[in-house]
Amino acid sequence: MNSRSVAALACLLWLLPPVVSADWRDAVPDARLVGEGQLRFFGFRIYDARLWSSSTPVRPDTPFALELTYHRAIGRDDFVRTSLEEIQRLSGASVGAARLARWQAEMQQAFVDVRPNERITGVFLPGRGCRFYVNDRLQHEVADPAFADAFFAIWLDPRSRDQKLRRNLLGER
């Protein structure tokens, strides 16, 4: 291959879109387990949750991953509905109907129907948005920092419904 061919190939590769990491761990360098806990509903174990980050305590300017391993079959529509309800509860009137509709469409692409022992991992990318992986395979990326903030607040906001789970995830046992 001559130097002109190498230069042409380099230009072509430069024009291609960046490859999105195949595994969530690529997006959270040096990830360490910050904390873990369980969500139970009427005594039934719904999922195990683990929070991964390179910084402890977790900082809003650092990527982190929230990994949920399910113990029950749950449908995508239930995920979307419950997530929207919690986002609305935490955000109040600051999130309008048009934005909620866009976020609903994003979540329809990000979530799947899960069976026991399947994992969905959400990766928070500060200032960029978030990615969702199903069993370590990229499912969908949301390029909306406001959505990422609102979504992860479901677990990490001081007003989260499950304070024990929040404290455990943040390593505040």
Features:
Chalcone isomerase domain-containing protein, signal, six-stranded antiparallel beta sheet, Chalcone isomerase, alpha+beta, Chalcone_isomerase, globular, 38% helix
Please, could you describe this protein's structure?
The chain is an alpha+beta fold and 173 residues long. The protein has helices spanning 3-15, 24-27, 76-91, 97-110, 145-156, 163-169; strands at 32-41, 44-53, 64-70, 119-125, 129-134, 137-142. A 6-stranded antiparallel sheet has the order 1-2-3-4-5-6. Helix 3 (76-91) runs antiparallel to helix 4 (97-110) and helix 3 (76-91) crosses helix 5. The longest helix is centred in the middle third of the chain and has 16 residues, at 76-91. The relative contact order is 0.17. Mean pLDDT is 88; it is low at 5-21.
- The span between the termini is 60 Å
Number of domains: 1
User: Beta-sheet strand percentage?
Assistant: 25-35%
Label the overall shape.
globular
Helix- and strand-based class? Answer: alpha+beta
CATH topology: Chalcone isomerase
Overall mean confidence score, pLDDT:
88
What is the radius of gyration? 18 Å
- Helical segment count: 6
**Poorly predicted spans:** 5-21
How many strand units? Answer: 6
Strand order of the largest sheet: 1-2-3-4-5-6
Helicity range of the residues?
25-40%
CATH architecture field: 3-Layer(bba) Sandwich
Would you state the CATH class? Alpha Beta
Q: Can you write the helix and strand succession as a string?
A: HHEEEHHEEEHH
Domain Chalcone isomerase: 63-171
InterPro entries: Chalcone_isomerase
Signal peptide: 1-22
Organism: Stutzerimonas stutzeri KOS6
